[in-house]
Amino acid sequence: MSTADGSSHAPGISVVVCVYTEDRWEDILAAVSSVGAQSYPALETLLVVDHNPALHDRLVLEYKEAPGVRVLANAGPRGLSAGRNTGIAAARGEVIAFLDDDAVAERHWLAYFAQGYADPRVMAVGGRTVPVWASGRRPAWFPEEFDWVVGCAYKGLPRGRAEVRNVLGGNASFRRAAFDAAGGFATGIGRDGDRRPLGCEETELCIRLGRARPDAVLLLDDRAVIHHRVPGARERFAYFRSRTYAEGLSKALVARSVGAGKGLESERRYTTRVLPAGIARGLRDALLRRPGGAARAGAIVAGVLTAAGGYVVGGARARRGEVTFSSGPIGRTSPERGGGDAGV
Question: What's the pLDDT score for residue 37?
């Protein structure tokens, strides 16, 4: 088996897809199908169901005849982080990749991940996530600099293949050795279904990994592409505002955990270079009477102010001990010991 560059290094890759609602049934099927169509075959696909017995049972029936697909129940508290940790514990691969349940991967997605691990120093490889807007086109007011709001790659990320501080969780992979060194995803910081649009759990993990393994290399390879569906509700300014506020809350928790130096290192460059350039482009487009220019500039300003407000509130809550999160070592499970629900 070869990677995208023809090399013979071929780590076994387990793909974890965390799911929580039957409303995304067709999306889940499409995500699993895209994994099955990879030019570099996955060792297995693990569907981790977040405290939804009806969805779990339906998926067990759907994939009972599908080789290489297993359905597991989240063995930890409700939320994305515990679901990922359940998948990690059950996975057999040397590398564990994560795919959002409302995304589809391009054919060579895993091949480009595998290529990155030819270097033994590489502990994580992330890819590029492209938005698929429900309306068929990007809202004129929505700045590309804030595509992270909808879980996608944003203007300001390095292009090509580059070392980064952290990968983005919906399109990422890690060596198992990374979890052995740093533990799993922190619970209490990331998403919990649709109820709170928090994030940053992968940022916190990657910073923790860098501390545990100072020689670790984390890569972003924008050839490893997935296409992420953005529902209509997330194209609205109300969601933009709530998500940027939640990001501020999450960043405060990360800074509290790992220190503001590392916790905000990339964000400083983003806010001092990338966003001012975005505002300038928006104002220029407004002067040239191009659609959405002034609105994009205004959205960037609003996003910064809202995130800053969330950061202040999150920092105060963390200092008072109102918000906590924890991470622990990830063990391996086996059929004999369980591992969530073996399912399929």
Answer: 98
3-state secondary structure the chain: CCCCCCCCCCCCEEEEEEECCHHHHHHHHHHHHHHHCCCCCCCEEEEEECCCHHHHHHHHHHCCCCCCEEEEECCCCCCHHHHHHHHHHHCCCCEEEEECCCEEECCCHHHHHHHHCCCCCEEEEEEEEEEEECCCCCCCCCCHHHHHHHCCCCECECCCEEECCCCCCCEEEEEHHHHHHHCCCCECCCCCCCCCCCCCHHHHHHHHHHHHCCCCEEEEEEEEEEEEEECHHHHCHHHHHHHHHHHHHHHHHHHHHHCHHHHCHHHHHHHHHHHHHHHHHHHHHHHCCCCCHHHHHHHHHHHHHHHHHHHHHHHHHHHCCCCCCECCCCCCCCCCCCCCCCCC
Provide the residue range defining the domain that includes 70.
Answer: 13-318
Residue 208 lies in a domain: yes
Highest-scoring range by mean pLDDT, 139-153, 178-192, 262-276, 326-340: 139-153
Residues 182-203 have a mean pLDDT of: 71
Residue 264 belongs to a domain: yes
- 314 occurs within a structural domain: yes
Is residue 261 included in any domain, yes or no?
A: yes
Domain count within the chain: 1
CATH number of the domain at 123, please: 3.90.550.10
